[in-house]
Design a protein that fits this description.
Elements: H1 11-45, H2 49-77, H3 79-98, H4 103-131, H5 135-166, H6 171-174, H7 176-190, H8 204-227, H9 231-253, H10 267-297, H11 302-308, H12 310-326, H13 332-350, H14 359-387, H15 393-428, H16 437-445, H17 447-452, H18 461-494
Helix pairs in contact: 1-4, 1-5, 1-7, 2-3, 2-4, 2-8, 2-15, 3-4, 3-7, 4-5, 4-15, 5-11, 5-12, 5-14, 8-9, 8-15, 10-14, 10-15, 10-18, 12-13, 12-14, 13-14, 13-18, 14-15, 15-18
Length: 541
Amino acid sequence: MSTTTAGRAGAREWGGLAVLSLPTVLLGLDVTVLYLALPSLAEDLRPSGTEELWIMDAYGFLIAGFLITMGTLGDRIGRRRLLMVGAAAFGAVSVVAAYSSSAEMLIAARAALGVAGATLMPSTLALISTMFTDQRQRSLAIGVWATSFALGMALGPVVGGALLDHFWWGSAFLVAVPVALVLLVAAPLLIPEYRAPRGGRFDLLSVALSLTAILPVIYAVKRFAKDGPDVPTLAATVVGVAFAALFVWRQGRLASPLLDVRLFADRTFSAALSVLLVGLVGVGGSMLLITQQLQLVEELPPVEAGLWMGPPALMMFAAAIGAPLVARRVSPAVVVAATLALSTVGYLLLTRVDAEGGVALVVTGFGLVYLGLGAIAALGTDLVVGAAPPQKAGSASAMSETVQELGLALGVAVLGSLATAVYRDRVDGVIPAGTPPEVAGAVGDSLAGAVSHAHRMPAGWLDQAKAAATSGLHTAMLVAAGCTLVLSFLSAVVLRHVGVIGGGPDEKGGTDDGGGAGGGRGDEPEADTADAPVVPAGPER
């Protein structure tokens, strides 16, 4: 059954999309707002260096670890139900985080927020696939959804700065409470429930295996970014890969697996995931380095830096909305390849930034990078979700989110480490003789350390540190440009079989994998009514 023959969404579904965008904006905002709150909460709670790292990382570890589990759980117990439970938990735990009286309490709250956050992303995306059965409308809706996360990230410094100017650090967490309340009230009115028929037994051993596969890998990536390739990094990688192999082996033996590995046999599904993974590597690294460039090199206050991130967010929005519209007439392979080529130009522009000032060039280059992100986030995610049958949409959505989380983490680790290596190499030879060892260690480690100890260094030395950091940015962006250009060519090849969006079975570009490359997802049951017993029925409108 082609999705182009299904009923088109009306005002209620588009209103539901607005509700589903709220938690997505919230999760994006939560990524950046804590960076602003960290200095004041550190002064209040006085965490150790290790505790400070866990305050930052506990959320990301747990959200990445539980995405696959929560995506499948939503398919089994009801996607709207899981979304509402997760939103309620996220709001409640945010209050606990806001009023934490110790570093240990805040770490525990951040970990719980990660588990709750893992329920939101796959649930929202899977519900979009239920509500928008017409492929053209679904592609546009996913474009709006994909942009919401970037919008939240751009708003983080602005909202966080405004709150911290008037309130204590805990106010940054309380933003989640009104969002959760609105979602809990509006979701039953605008969003249909969906539960997969014949879901089968929920395998707890698979949950444990998925966690022991994903968490060590994410830990290894983050540790590599901070300490380089040491023994703990290698050990965590080996453990993660070993448990990943066990996880895949077990999924192939289960009648009702946590993750249906047969989805990877669909070349549209696998190709789209690959493009998302590699594309997000460049974005993750550049996001870290551009934030550093604006705040530490250009010396912009956080609120102003957040405002300068507005234009790139608008360019991502334009691409995420425009790419699905263009892909109705032009092959998605061409659209993705063309926008990634523009991203390559953006990375090359960033290699021309200098330490003497160039905010406009930074914003222009990063805006072109975000242009490619908008296109691959919208079209890649749509292809992943569209290739899966409706009852597996939650699992497919979770896989898409996991791949993007991993891509961002790899980008920070690889490009961040490369830029840091260049900085250390340049700075090592210009640290004056007689500098106290603790100061030399701090200024030689990172630009942040150089800025914080600038008063203990000779006049003008900080300019040399800024120049070294900018050289690191140039090197990382040059590598990102080369990789993105290669990805542009590869995406034109691996996605060439995907037909125009909504083209129907005759315009699918010759796909033979039974997936939804051109819009078909099979004659599967769709959604349950919101309040009646769960049966394979049509979607509630």
